[in-house]
Design a protein that fits this description.
alpha+beta, 5 strands, five-stranded mixed beta sheet, binds zinc ion, 32% strand
């Protein structure tokens, strides 16, 4: 989307019943199977500085990093992002200032609302996705560890043998 169009009228991105493309972008950012989403982002621009404010609420099913079970991932909260024109290539590298690290860049005078949405979702994600029910999660994780420590279970071998006997 052209920055000048945002500068003139602003732009509002509303996602309630996501299109296939919108759902794909959000699910990819959340690394999950999306179950619900509600987004309202308002784009405003003045003197080339684009601010994006609004709210984001989405949920889906992902995988717990601790126990491997399916678990719900929820992103929720206000959005406040700022985009400025990408600095000219000077050929020499320089350190980013702390302020710049909180800024997004747009190039060639355009900013894609879905890219911004993807970034807003990524920023709102929990650092580490684990089950909400931490006791059950812990129990599953312990069981996984125990199974690993025990190595291949002899019982499985016996069961397999039994199957062979009874199926012949
Ligand atoms: Zn878990």
């Amino acid at each position: 989307m052209d920055i000048r169009a945002i500068e003139d009228h602003g732009y509002t991105l509303t996602v309630e019943n996501p299109s296939a493309r919108e759902a794909e972008v959000i699910a990819a950012a959340m690394e999950c199977v999306l179950s619900r989403v509600a987004v309202r982002l308002r784009f405003e621009s003045e003197k080339g500085i684009v601010t994006v404010t609004g709210s984001l609420s989405a949920a889906g099913i992902s995988t717990c990093v601790r126990c491997g079970a399916d678990t719900e991932v929820v992103v929720e909260g206000p959005v406040a992002l700022t985009y400025v024109k990408e600095p000219e290539e000077t050929g020499e590298s320089r350190e980013l200032t702390e302020e710049e690290m909180d800024l997004g860049w747009y190039s060639e005078g355009t900013l894609e609302p879905l890219d911004v949405l993807s970034e807003a979702v990524a920023l709102a994600l929990p650092d580490r996705l684990v089950c909400v029910d931490s006791l059950a999660c812990e129990a599953r994780a312990q069981a996984l560890l125990a199974a690993q420590d025990a190595g291949p279970e002899p019982e499985i071998g016996l069961k397999a043998l039994g199957k062979l006997h009874f199926s012949s």
